[in-house]
Design goal:
Helix content is 30%, strand content 27%.
Length: 421
């Protein structure tokens, strides 16, 4: 396994270019299974999660190639409807294959995705939604076994205990495109990544209205054609580099950052004293005065993203004063707290709240990444910590950030990847 070694104390300066959005490309790749022709997906980041999705698609019998950030998918001869545990268990997002396989082949068997370090993430809304449009679903031997011969358009309500679900909305949306009649999804997720997938479906011939709003209408069609599409840029990667500029007192231009996708993050950072301005390339982020603490509550889009919670906690840990972070999407998503505390952060947990007493005095330490976004938070803390930080289990970060150490090095950070012995 690899690890990161970081020497803190460098003010980041320069320009960084974003990659395609992981949370958009995975359901878009799944959506290609609905078609009768080739699709070409561009701006695909070479991430471990993407490679996992491609492996599952090949297992199903789909012809897939990836070259220079473009994935060509030919699903015309696939007939395997079973996505196995061995592959699905490595990536929860693979559950989004359920909807398209069911709609196209009228039968699907997809392994239950299993547990997750950031807390319980059930798929009850996925199953509820598919049942609402007539799917016959049972759980046997750890697999979701679904029959779609009697599916028809219907009203589907997807509100859950912690708000809407992006992947559940994606699954129902994809299934409804080839389901006879009109399907109306209420309390649909509004995330930009979901809108990007819906726009791709429309290019294939789907009839969809209301993407990006809580009510999406789908009129089923007989078939879909292949299409070409370029994936949106990653707003979570953008937010991570925005906080990197803030935490190091830097001046960074983030190419392709979309202000329309980052409203809540920009609001909290500006309230903390960060200067953010729009440029021709994207966004420029600068620290021009002393930081001040801000409170943050994570919510479904357009609220503050749960995928930025850990990074924001790293920033507040070095911002003098008291701040409170409330996690309302995944209330147990605080695995990074113990590792930040090893570096000197003062954080008290009263789930779903983290109370942070900020201090400029954190120091490098050996720490362990527990999940994707926790990994990013530890890197951010290491960039500003006194001394050396060693982060192990960084395979987590390779799931969602492409060559993150190289991007930070170009901004002046002292970070290197090396083998763990």
């Amino acid at each position: 396994m690899d690890r990161f070694i970081i020497e803190g104390g460098v003010r980041l300066k320069g320009t960084v270019e974003l990659s395609g959005a992981k949370n958009a490309v995975l359901p878009i790749l799944a959506a290609t299974l609905l078609t009768n022709g080739k699709s070409i997906i561009r701006n695909v980041p070479p991430l471990s999660d993407v490679y996992t999705m491609l492996r599952i698609m090949r297992y199903l019998g789909v012809k897939v190639t990836m070259e220079d950030g473009a994935v060509t998918v030919d699903p015309r001869n696939y007939s395997n409807y079973r996505a196995p545990y061995k592959l699905v268990s490595t990536m929860r997002a693979s559950i989004c294959l359920l909807g398209p396989i069911l709609a196209k082949l009228k039968h699907a068997e997809v392994s239950m995705p299993g547990g997750c370090v950031i807390g319980t993430r059930p798929i009850d809304l996925h199953l509820k939604g598919l049942r609402s449009i007539g799917a016959d679903i049972k759980i046997e031997h750890g697999y979701v076994i679904a029959d779609g011969k009697n599916m028809k358009g219907s009203r589907v309500y997807l509100g859950g205990k912690f708000g809407s679900s992006v992947l559940a909305t994606a699954n129902i949306l994809m299934a409804a495109t080839l389901t006879k009649g009109k399907t109306v999804i209420e309390s649909a997720a509004c995330e930009p990544e979901l809108t990007d997938m819906a726009n791709f479906l429309c290019k294939m011939g789907a009839k969809i209205k209301g993407q990006g709003t809580p009510i999406i209408e789908i009129e089923g069609v007989r078939s879909l054609s292949g299409a070409q599409h370029s994936v949106i840029y990653d707003r979570i990667e953008a937010g991570t580099f925005m906080i990197a500029a803030a935490i190091t007192g830097g001046d960074v231009v983030i190419k392709h950052a979309c202000v329309n996708h980052l409203g809540a993050v920009i609001d909290r950072l500006e309230n903390a004293g960060i200067k953010i301005s729009k440029t021709k390339e994207g966004l420029r982020v600068r620290k021009t005065r002393s930081l001040k603490p801000v409170d943050v509550t994570t919510l479904p889009y357009p609220g503050f993203p749960t995928d930025m919670q850990a990074q924001m906690m790293a920033l507040m840990s070095v911002t003098k004063g008291i701040s409170i972070i409330t996690e309302k999407v995944y209330p147990e998503r605080f695995m990074h707290v113990s590792e930040l505390s090893r570096m000197g952060a003062q954080i008290m947990l009263e789930t779903p709240n983290a109370i942070i007493k900020g201090s400029s005095k954190i120091s490098g330490a050996p720490v362990m990444a527990s999940d994707l976004r926790a990994s990013a938070a530890l890197i951010l803390a290491g960039l500003v910590a006194k001394g050396k930080t060693e982060i192990s289990r960084i395979y987590h970060i390779d799931r969602g950030y492409h060559n993150i150490e190289e991007k930070f090095e170009k901004l002046g950070a002292r970070i290197k990847r090396e083998k763990e012995y």
